[in-house]
Write a structure and sequence with these properties.
single chain; about 0% strand; mainly alpha
Length: about 210
């Protein structure tokens, strides 16, 4: 896996506009793809991407290189941003505010984000397949399978110890094996539905293998 590290890291980027621009350019694609696996509207992806990098300005000083990569740390920030967005949506406050205050995207920007959304269709299906797991286990598996972090990086993003992450991963794999076995037992009753979910379940099966 290619590890991207910027000059000075998030802390320096938060203080220096030039370094912030460099940090943004190095990581914006990964952050956008992370968000595109979790939401399916290009305007929302654009808004949340901006929120993630605004959060870097406030929290860049919390990054510790010894605890993980910049990408893993950013995914932790992005998870918090997505969670906050979901809470806003659940309270129904976001609807009117986003319609009234959403910044307009140029057609080229919308097309570019829609391409990313299409490219992340499989990732969103995998995230959906994991939705029935307990929150902590689901979040860990999402980061390892959909976002391709190592166990240590995922632990850093979730704020837990790598040892605890490995125990959680083992438990989650057992739950997922059982769920997949149950799905196979009933698949013949709904052949068409099963065919539409093959990609997602195939991706989920991969997490039962070894981890980094």
């Amino acid at each position: 896996m290619n590890i991207t590290r910027s000059r000075g890291g998030p802390a320096a980027a938060a203080r220096d506009p030039e370094l912030f621009e460099e940090f943004y350019r190095e990581h914006v694609d990964a952050v956008t793809r992370f968000l595109a696996r979790r939401v399916d509207d290009p305007h929302t992806v654009a808004d949340l991407t901006a929120e993630v990098f605004l959060a870097v300005i406030d929290s860049g000083h919390t990054y510790r290189p010894a605890l993980g990569t910049e990408r893993g740390w950013l995914y932790g920030v992005a998870r918090n941003v997505v969670s906050a967005e979901r809470r806003r949506t659940a309270r129904q406050h976001v609807l009117n505010g986003r319609v009234a205050g959403r910044r307009l995207l140029a057609p080229d920007d919308i097309a570019r984000l829609e391409e990313k959304l299409v490219a992340e269709n499989e990732g969103r299906r995998l995230v959906a397949a994991l939705a029935e797991l307990p929150e902590g286990e689901r979040a860990l598996l999402e980061l390892i399978t959909a976002d391709e972090l190592s166990v240590s990086e995922a632990a850093r993003a979730l704020g837990i110890r790598p040892t605890a992450a490995r125990v959680r991963l083992h438990r989650a794999r057992g739950r997922l094996r059982a769920a997949l076995a149950g799905n196979r037992g009933t698949a013949s009753a709904e052949t068409t539905s099963a065919e539409t979910t093959t990609t997602a379940t195939d991706g989920a099966v991969a997490i039962t293998g070894s981890s980094a």
